[in-house]
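note to self — DONT lose this again. spent like an hour looking for the file last time. sequence + predicted structure for the chain T wanted, 122 res
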Amino acid sequence: MRELAGRQEDERHARALEHAAAGIERASHQEVIPGGDGQLAEELRYSLAADVLLGATYTGTLPDLAPGERMPLVAVCALAAAMPGCVLGDLPRELTLLADELNAATTVGRTATAAANSADAG
């Protein structure tokens, strides 16, 4: 996701994607706390919302995302947002599944980005 942020011409879109990347890291690591309440702070929920696809508001433009990058982006945000809730119910199997799917969605996104970069270079 940080690579996606790095290629944005509009710095506001870059910041929105960076914020989402930080939210994914936080939700899938720091917020997965045994004994935690399983709830995401409002700010964190906002950074992981599907509207990350639309980028920063009031720019009049959309973020520069290649075909195939949008769906993995939504999937990664949704999976990360779901992870803390597994701790509340002591659901290690479910947390493992979400982590595996998060990795798979990230791989799909990286593949789409690599294909877009190859097409741009060729």
